[in-house]
## 1
Amino acid sequence: MARKPIIAGNWKMNNTIAQTKALVADLIPLVKDANCDVVICTPYTDLAAAVEATKGSNIHVGAENVHWAEKGAFTGEISADMLKELGVEYVIVGHSERRTYFGETDQTVNARVKAALSRGLKVILCVGETLAEREAGVTAEVVTRQTKAAFEGIDNDELDNIVIAYEPVWAIGTGKTATAQDANDTIKIIRDCMAELYCPKCAENRVRIQYGGSMNAKNAKELMAMPEIDGGLIGGASLKAEDFAKVVGFDK
Ligand code: 13P
């Protein structure tokens, strides 16, 4: 069974509501014939506008984070129910920027994944090694540890609701992309880990793994041609409709 590719934009802290409406309006005609799933993950303040603007199109909307608690004294946080109420379908969890700047740990990532799934959100789970870890030769250990921790307590029947994004931290926003072969090799390690955690067929048929890190209109074709790479999580290049649409156009 072929895995359906999924291309997602991670807008990070970019775009006002007005800019969201304009970008989505430009994007809709450009990606309407995509063979892959198309997702845009926007700041919280843009979500309602993005859901409204994408109605009737093939573009799905995601948030960039979610809290693990149902509700309570967590100033500045947003719950899964709040996202669901807006019509949001996806949420990114464990992005390296959250891990680096906001104290995200393997344990909080796992708690957020569980909260999102329990409320019917689909998760884009990010894993990836830093430059120091890559240079120390511990990439496999790092992505395996992050994957195992994130899936702790997650049932097999949730696998269709989680996409993994392999994002080497040193490739994010730097213009440095992992070579297609390197990205493919590390994604294979993650898939093998999923085979061990669940079952080989589950990992082969139901686990979609994206590459992320300076993926753009120029390098997407080569990356998408690799057998293990099921899509991309796109930062900078998702902020321009033509660039993002070109990446979407390389759906397998
Ligand atoms: P860039 O595509 O800007 O490198 O960002 C990648 C990323 O972090 C997506 O989540």
## 2
Amino acid sequence: MCSSSQLLGIFIATVLTVLSGTAYAEQEQDIDNTRVLTIGTGSLTGVYYPLGGAVCRLVNRERERHGIRCLADSTEGSVSNLNAIRAGEMDMAVVQSDWQYHAYHGSSQFEAQGPDQDLRAVFSLHSEPFTVVARADSGITLFDDLKDKRINVGNPGSGQRATLEVVLEAMGWTLNEFAQVLELSAAEQAQALCDNTVDAIIFTVGHPNRSILEATTACDSVLVPVTGPAIDELVQSRTYYTHATIPGGLYRGNVEEIPTFGVKATLVTSTRIPEETVYQVVKAVFDNFDEFRSLHPALADLDKQIMIQEGNSAPLHPSTGRYFLETGIIDAPAPE
Ligand code: GLU
């Protein structure tokens, strides 16, 4: 007999598996004389990759009308995506709101490159709680317990790696605090946890997602709260951080809601991309909004108004304002 949380887990796993297949199918289609639009996402087991696949699926459905062929690429994650947008190697990307802020302002990881004034926010998406998962036998129940443990900090270029560095600095820690530090990608980390190669993994990601589902079903592991004065200070001093919770009951053995902090996932582009192309993406998502929300369980709670009001620190792309005005969702143009 399955418990209701096991059934939920099976349902989520099925939806997530089907979605991954969808994203591949979109990429394999090939039609000549169309404009190719690339969307940078993240690792195969996160939310960004199936989300990019969901956006492309809706865009490609209207290809005969607008001539755009949308492709969602798996990438290293937020920081790498923002560099690719800046370099003109990618047309759109899903990125964390904290790294959108820093890329636009030329701060933190982007200080050396300076501000990317061509960066534009298209809309924000789901919340991404900073998520720590530990082996149940590791004795880790608080973030402080990670000291002297083996942890996966994530691959360079990922949002979680960059955000973890911010957290460590706020706490006055360095990577020397840990017994061992691995740099595995999100797609590799659940297995490393369950093989007992690391005691804990860290992922800034929407829920539910395949990576954490795997980490909590292939072995016994627990979500760890991330709270305390350093986190409060971060949330108070930075506009792009909020207190956040990971709902209980999404993963096997994790029934309680877990407090942490988080960011928003956002869709960004560059002023270099033709406005009409971006408009077609905005239209495809919002014209088919209920369907879009049903394409991944982490998107289920999206709200159109919040998507243009929160998480966007680069200027909002004019196409978003145009769509919202045309459809009467807002009365005045969104600020450029
Ligand atoms: N937030 C992660 C990053 O930017 C990716 C999360 C996901 O793939 O869903 O690197």
## 3
Amino acid sequence: MTGAFADEILVGGRWRQGTGEPLETRSPATGEVLAVLRGAGAADVDEAVRAGAVAAADPGWRDLLPHERARHLVRIADLIAEHAGDLAALQTADTGKSINETRALVASAQGTFRYVAAALETMEGALTPPRGPYLTMSVHEPIGVVGAITPWNSPIASDAQKIAPALAGGNAVVLKPAEWTPLVSLALGRLIMDAGLPPGLLSVLPGPGAVTGDALVRHPGVGKVSFTGGTATGRAIGAVAAQKIMPVSLELGGKSPTIVFPDADREQALAGLLFGVFSSSGQSCVAGSRVFVHDSIYEEFVSELVRRAGKLRVGPGTDPATQVAPMAAHAHRDRVAAMVDRAREAGARVRCGGRAPEGEAYERGAYYLPTILDGVPNDAPICQEEVFGPVLVALPFADEDDLVAQANASVYGLACGIWTGDYRTAWRVARRIEAGTVWINTYKQFSISTPFGGMKDSGLGREKGREGILGYMRQKSVYWGLDDSPLPWAG
Ligand code: NDP
């Protein structure tokens, strides 16, 4: 892997400086500048999309058979595996995340390329029942150039989740990573090109969303945008897609409920809840950030949760013992702190945390303590707005109907966790909650083979699974006449 701290971006197969504004990426643990690079401007987007269109149309890529294209994906997976340690360390440096988490994210990226390669080899079209003297079939074809836009919380995993199926579908990809965390996406770009992908099929264009991202979405040569990020940005991208009549997939925010019934296994529920909301310092779209606890055990359970949250190890991402690492940027930490302060002013009880940790070790980093709040109703802003930080709000519920009404009273519908010893309760509630993913007696576990996506304001479309590749393809129907005589028309 060359250039761990790259100062060049990948534009249409060439590594060079961007033509946009300088981008400074800082260590969230120390505030130090890690790299300054010239980001991509609109001209770079145009060059990348044009090069992508040429590369995608080249018979050397367009006409590859699925098993041949799969070989590229396997080679990429092999290189990710070979450089796993460097990639994890780089992502920890750039995002602040704990090294255990970034190792898992690198493993996930590698697994994504392998899974998609295998799935690609098994993709099938359909020979549909004909209604006349012809064969009818349904096949899938590449779109052309796909724009992929990713956020800063888990770059390598979210990049892989878009690049792998988009390449499998026979497309070129222009990736726009978040400006706060471009380094691992650029390193991934280097590995993908080192794996022998034909030039032009991948561009990596860090730059401000409002400039680089917007130019990518609007570019007439982009045939699909796959976006992961905040709901407001997703809505704006969806509006442009509607104008272009362009398919778009949107993986957006959440305010996911986790539910504790009185018959839940306490140890499992406590551990699952803490992991579900405080891992990744809460910077996770599926963070279980609202916990509903049955009235009969509320005080006892929440007190124990608070006691254990106070014991979580807060520290630098480089320490393998760290559970709660710094947030991705100081500005983001300040935003989270301001949301908690507003909740406190509005009457929320701060049961633990509610501030940055004290001491020299934490002074320069974007740290925030695991925080649990309660004493506010479900319609309070802190219960409705995505905080995207280590902040949990606890709420009591009286019975199942009350619970379902409260849990569903949210614009979001991304995920849900249910802790109960009764399989009938689990099934009933799982089916009643509006969420794209439900975890029962576990939380924040993922499989690349299982579709992922949101309901309501949490998004549109699904990633992962075998169908994930079809999301990057266009469907075509073919009627193949077999009759010896002409149609009864021309005499
Ligand atoms: P943003 O929506 O601000 O940014 C996401 C990406 O979009 C970034 O690359 C950003 O660029 C880019 N962007 C910003 N504005 C535009 C625009 N006008 N046009 C095109 N691209 C644009 O989200 P955050 O960075 O704050 O990420 C956190 C959000 O992502 C949370 O809401 C979280 O829930 C969600 N998320 C959802 C996931 C899911 O699978 N459902 C998974 C992970 C996160 P830049 O940053 O460079 O400005």
